[in-house]
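Sequence design from tokenized structure. All designs in this work follow the same two-part layout: the structure record, then the generated sequence. An example of the structure record is given first.
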């Protein structure tokens, strides 16, 4: 079966995704979270283990051992709340069969855990109830609040349930397409619930956020040769940093919090390649040292040390200038 024989996915913000099969397969192949998070073994029972909590770090939950310990200390209360939600519970079910009250109780069971908000909570809970609980990170929350005009009430658990209700409305609107896609992926050995499939489409393809692997090579600097002709000298800090930087671009170009580790590393490498192409840095090291060297060189008209010294600095060579 190909995407041509599958229904397109129409999101409530007006986005239409035609090639749903190819899109899902692209995610499975290129996004590291599928291998590190979706394929991670977690029992869908009523017992939250420390290992279950740690799996969320594969979805960039970035919980330190101290935060994980605080989360796990609440396990008995969370287990009791999980026990109120059948393992078969699903957002695909009619709305009156979804255990809304138990979901609110589960969210309340996690309130007050230091440094654990909704994104971290749902990254852990999705693995325990993958057909019922979506991953409500900042991208998904932004989308749902925009499409349904949701406002915060100050009641964390109630607000979380309202987001899940909004998510169900999105899922219901796209259910035939998601069910057909899930069946085709299952035939290919890929087991993702409708709840998780909708998450990946909203996260990466709704226009709310663009994953690094979807950005063009030109935008990311990928594929640029290090041997291209040297461009004009990069402007110095007083022109480029203090006056010329569009802070909206810096803060909005990529939501680093939602990037996978592999995506952050790729972005770092691409950024260094572009800085090197512009002549701002000369090595693949952290750029601050090379940039400082460039500023001093231009201020003193000194001669830059050879590039090998930049790549393999010794105590004697570091910081030395030849005039």
């Amino acid at each position: 079966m190909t995407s041509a024989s599958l229904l397109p996915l129409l999101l409530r913000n007006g986005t239409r995704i035609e090639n749903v099969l190819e899109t899902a397969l692209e995610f499975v192949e290129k996004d590291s979270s599928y291998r590190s998070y979706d394929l991670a073994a977690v029992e869908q029972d009523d017992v939250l283990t420390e290992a279950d909590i740690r799996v969320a770090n594969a979805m960039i939950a970035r919980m330190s051992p101290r935060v994980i310990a605080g989360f796990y200390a609440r396990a008995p209360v969370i287990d009791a709340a999980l026990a109120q939600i059948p393992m078969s519970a699903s957002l695909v079910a009619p709305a009156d069969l979804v255990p809304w009250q138990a979901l609110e109780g589960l969210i309340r069971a996690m309130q007050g855990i230091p440094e654990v908000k909704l994104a971290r909570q749902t990254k852990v809970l999705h693995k325990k109830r993958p057909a019922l609980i979506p991953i409500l990170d900042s991208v998904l929350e932004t989308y749902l609040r925009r499409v349904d005009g949701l406002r915060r009430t100050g009641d964390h658990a109630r607000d979380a349930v309202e987001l899940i209700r909004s998510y169900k409305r999105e899922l219901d609107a796209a259910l035939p397409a998601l069910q057909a896609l899930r069946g085709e992926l299952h035939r290919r050995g890929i087991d993702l619930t409708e709840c998780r499939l909708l998450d990946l489409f909203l996260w990466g393809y709704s226009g709310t956020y663009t994953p690094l692997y979807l950005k063009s090579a030109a935008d990311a600097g990928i594929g640029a040769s290090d041997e291209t002709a040297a461009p004009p000298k990069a402007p110095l800090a007083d022109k480029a940093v203090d006056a010329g930087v569009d802070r909206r671009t810096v803060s909005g170009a990529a939501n680093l919090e939602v990037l996978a580790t592999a995506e952050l590393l790729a972005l770092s490498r691409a950024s260094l390649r572009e800085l090197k192409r512009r002549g701002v840095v000369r090595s693949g090291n952290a750029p601050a040292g090379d940039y400082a060297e460039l500023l001093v060189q231009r201020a003193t008209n000194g001669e830059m040390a050879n590039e090998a010294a930049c790549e393999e600095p010794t105590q004697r060579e570091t910081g030395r200038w030849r005039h």
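Residues 220-254, 304-323 have pLDDT under 50 and may be disordered. We note this feature because it recurs in several other targets discussed in the main text.
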